[in-house]
């Protein structure tokens, strides 16, 4: 309990101060707004939608041309139900929009989509968007019982090269397990690391998680005791759950 309070109310605000972000503030807003009535949520959504539509139309030639070709203007989008009037944009369209982004004094943070469709998309967001994204992720984890400060494991096939990320892992009580190859030794080492660390939660892409669970089931090992499993990246199918192994874990 003390660890959770420290990480949420002291460590998170301190991290915001050092990074210039506002995750703590956004998280508090999301924790309050999740209890709003349907009317309150709709009113807020429509206000934000109007702001986004107007900003896009008047700051990006691509969007302005898109609206003109569709015979609509920002005034025609008064609520969520009007979104069907806006043409759908594919990845190539988004790349054209990115080219139109003007240099900003605010830090632009690059990111990439998972590439599950075969073509990863590079995009940017500012500290405001980054903060909201991170706060939304924390709230989503809260819904499965997780609180900042709870021990968890990240299972990944990508090496952890960032020193900043390593520090964040330490402070957040997160053990990052890099599975270089899906060999018997690597999977066994990963399993032993998880058992040794005794996490309450685990995060992984569905596919490597499935392969690891399949291997462990074949070896006849016991399930890992967890409160929750969070998957990310690609689509989660029923087959990814590897029925039987995790039944005693959650």
What's the topology here?
Elements: H1 2-19, H2 23-33, H3 38-59, H4 61-70, H5 91-99, E1 109-112, E2 122-125, H6 127-142, E3 152-156, H7 163-171, E4 174-178, H8 184-197, E5 201-204, H9 206-219, E6 228-231
Parallel strand pairs: 3-4, 3-5, 5-6
Antiparallel strand pairs: 1-2
Structure at a glance:
It contains 9 helices and 6 strands; from the N terminus they run H-H-H-H-H-E-E-H-E-H-E-H-E-H-E. The protein is an alpha/beta fold and 250 residues long.
Q: Topology as H/E string?
A: HHHHHEEHEHEHEHE
Helix content: 40-55%
Structural class by sheet pairing and helices: alpha/beta
- Give the low-pLDDT segments: none
Report Rg: 21 Å
As an assembly, this protein is single chain
Through-space gap between termini = 21 Å
Instruction: Give a count of the beta strands, DSSP E runs of length 2 or more.
Output: 6
Instruction: Determine the number of helices (DSSP H or I, runs of at least 4 residues).
Output: 9
